[in-house]
Amino acid sequence: MSPDPADDPVHPPMSYVGTIVSHDRSLHTGLVLPDNSPEAISFTEGDVLNWDHVTPLVGERAVFEIVQVAQGYAAIQMLLPPRKVKQPYIPQTVTQLLVPPLLVLVAAYALHLWLFWPLIISYFICINFIGLVLLMLIAAGQYSSGVRPAEFTAVLLALLGGAPVMTFGAYLLPTRFQTEVAVVFLVGLSVCQGLFLNAFFPEFFELSIWSRLV
Fold first, then answer.
1. CA-based torsion, 177, 179, 183, 186: positive or negative
2. DSSP H helical segments within the chain, as ranges?
3. Which of 25, 106, 179, 214 has its CA 20 to 30 A from that of 206?
4. Considering its fold, how many domains does the chain have in total?
């Protein structure tokens, strides 16, 4: 193999692919064998740009450039393939889906016990307050082309009773819920939840109960 020197204006450096066949940690050097070549060339640890200094280098594939040095040729600008990150035992998505609804239940029951508020009113206040905070966090976060776990959680809270504040937040906050389809869905869901409360918890609409909260 006769790679082109880096300082040759006619033949600029090109990328090669190969396998690291040896690595001496004490000398901070090693050898990489380019594909389709019987001759390994040397490299230094400093030229492995994305090495974490923990993962063994021997056997790793690498993309690199070759330059001519006094001792022959050397590999530079070496890049290892990206490593897959091990997923946690409990996926982050599941955690984000479960924590807000559980927080709503705990907060609602706490208000019911400590302030003697009717449980349905405590629940309504908590789920809408937490839903509004979640919408504010979604609006403050970075835009993503895909649906984020927090947005799934917001939909879940809307289905469980937080549709009124979701409808309100859709008009004020720059989120994915500002679309016409989402707004119509949230308005319809708010009406359905109002009818449900009127049918099963008519005391929810009595001013005398709300006046006791002040």
1. negative
2. 92-114, 119-140, 149-157, 163-172, 180-200, 207-211
3. 106
4. 2
The CA-based angle 112-113-114, given to 5 degrees, is 100
Contact 177, 166 (CB under 8 A): yes
Q: Considering 79, 106, 134, which residue would you say is the last residue of a domain?
A: 79
User: Which H or E run includes 64?
Assistant: strand 61-69
Sign of CA dihedral 92, 172, 178, 121: positive
Q: How many CA atoms, within 13 angstroms, populate the side-chain half-sphere of residue 88?
A: 6
Note whether residue 187 is domain-resident.
yes
Q: What is the pLDDT along the chain (214 residues), one digit of tens a residue?
A: 444 444 444 445 578 999 999 999 899 999 999 998 899 999 999 999 988 888 899 999 999 999 988 888 999 999 998 866 554 445 666 777 788 999 999 999 999 999 989 999 999 999 999 999 999 988 887 666 667 788 889 999 999 999 999 898 888 888 888 888 888 999 999 999 999 999 999 989 988 888 877 6
Among 187, 27, 205, CA closest to 120: 205
Tell whether 30 is covered by a domain: yes
Neighbouring-strand partners of residue 134? none
Q: Which two tokens stand for residue 45?
A: 């640890």
Count Cβ neighbours within 10 Å for each residue of 56-78 and write b for 16 or more, e otherwise.
Answer: ebeebebebbbbeeeeebbbbbb
Q: Which residues pair with 74 in a beta bridge?
A: 42, 67
